């Protein structure tokens, strides 16, 4: 019997995020095919809402756009931010006493470097947020800018806190997009749409922790900043990431929620509460892993669907095929043919 080898599956990214990344090109009337091909992405995938690309391909696309446009915001702003601008803003944070003062200085640095997006610290009850003000006329053409800014701010907060800081909520001033179900993979907390403004929220007390980063740490961060923003490296301490890692390590056997909770030294109820706080669930984390494994196997092997279903922990092929179609919008056999 053939089983999936317990190797780490590739993380996949919805084609919706690729569309967002390319929105800066589109508003300039530039066809994206050249950059997609450089990243190993078939341009035909743009016409398939259910399509996914690997995280490596997405990172390569970010790098290709940034380099060729010499713009760290890949055409999303009114004027380009040359490569190295983010590094300059980050250097201004060195020497800040606390995480909060670092975030406040980053907001100030941002206002000096560009005119479109306003950043400011705001408070409510026992939480402090970084508010993002984006011109209303940017929607819907540049709605991706809301996502991009909160991803950058989340990664910044994780770096400043050495991975310890946890976001409590992501507020979006825009309506829920068609790909809102994908948000749980990049925004590990409760997500709310149609809010008065876009913001990322933290426990106020947690922002009083000292900021202990130096030039060497900044150099390492900037060397892999694209990957860390895309994959949110540094979120390994998030419960959802630990659940996924636990499920991966146990393959080919599939653990249930109680078994994972036991391995993480907590009760099943506590595990469920943590996952809800991150805007996800045990089943969703498990299904995202199974989806990524299925896509990888469909694209790279000829493994029969019955065997793939068994290896992914499904009772039969029909159940797997229904689940896969719910995940991607396509039956697995159709997805395999289209991917080749």
TrEMBL record:
<keyword id="KW-0805">Transcription regulation</keyword>
<dbReference type="GO" id="GO:0003700">
    <property type="term" value="F:DNA-binding transcription factor activity"/>
</dbReference>
<dbReference type="InterPro" id="IPR032687">
    <property type="entry name" value="AraC-type_N"/>
</dbReference>
<dbReference type="Pfam" id="PF12833">
    <property type="entry name" value="HTH_18"/>
</dbReference>
<dbReference type="InterPro" id="IPR009057">
    <property type="entry name" value="Homeodomain-like_sf"/>
</dbReference>
<dbReference type="GO" id="GO:0000976">
    <property type="term" value="F:transcription cis-regulatory region binding"/>
</dbReference>
<dbReference type="Pfam" id="PF12625">
    <property type="entry name" value="Arabinose_bd"/>
</dbReference>
<dbReference type="InterPro" id="IPR018060">
    <property type="entry name" value="HTH_AraC"/>
</dbReference>
<dbReference type="GO" id="GO:0005829">
    <property type="term" value="C:cytosol"/>
</dbReference>
<keyword id="KW-0238">DNA-binding</keyword>
<keyword id="KW-0804">Transcription</keyword>
<feature type="domain" description="HTH araC/xylS-type">
    <location>
        <begin position="241"/>
        <end position="338"/>
    </location>
</feature>
<protein>
    <submittedName>
        <fullName>AraC family transcriptional regulator</fullName>
    </submittedName>
</protein>
């Amino acid at each position: 019997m053939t089983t999936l080898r317990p190797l780490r599956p590739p993380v996949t990214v919805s084609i919706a995020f690729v569309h967002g990344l390319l929105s800066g090109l589109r508003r300039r009337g530039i066809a994206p095919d050249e950059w997609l091909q450089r990243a190993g992405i078939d341009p035909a995938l743009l016409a398939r809402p259910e399509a996914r690309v690997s995280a490596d391909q997405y990172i390569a696309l970010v790098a290709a756009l940034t380099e060729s446009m010499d713009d760290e915001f890949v055409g999303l702003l009114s004027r380009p931010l040359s490569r190295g601008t983010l590094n300059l803003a980050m250097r201004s944070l060195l020497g800040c006493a606390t995480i909060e003062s670092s975030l406040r200085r980053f907001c100030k640095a941002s206002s000096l470097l560009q005119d479109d997006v306003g950043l400011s610290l705001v408070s409510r009850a026992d939480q402090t947020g970084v508010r993002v003000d984006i011109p209303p006329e940017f929607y819907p053409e540049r709605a991706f800018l809301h996502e991009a800014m909160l991803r950058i701010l989340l990664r910044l907060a994780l770096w400043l806190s050495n991975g310890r800081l946890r976001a409590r909520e992501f507020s979006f001033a825009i309506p829920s997009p068609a790909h809102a179900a994908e948000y749980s993979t990049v925004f590990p907390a409760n997500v709310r749409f149609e809010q008065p403004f876009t913001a990322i929220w933290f426990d106020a007390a947690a922002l009083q922790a000292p900021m202990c980063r130096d030039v060497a740490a900044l150099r390492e961060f900037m060397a892999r900043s694209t990957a860390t923003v895309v994959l949110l490296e540094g979120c390994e301490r998030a419960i959802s990431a630990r659940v996924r890692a636990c499920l991966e390590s146990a393959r080919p056997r599939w653990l249930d929620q109680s078994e994972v909770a036991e391995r993480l030294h907590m009760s099943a109820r506590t595990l469920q509460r943590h996952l809800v706080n991150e805007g996800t669930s045990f089943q969703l984390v498990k299904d995202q892993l199974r989806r990524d494994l299925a896509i990888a196997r469909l694209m790279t092997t000829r493994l029969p669907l019955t065997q793939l279903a068994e290896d992914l922990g499904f009772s039969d092929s029909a159940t797997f095929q229904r689940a896969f179609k719910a995940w991607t919008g396509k039956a697995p056999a159709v997805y395999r043919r289209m991917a080749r």
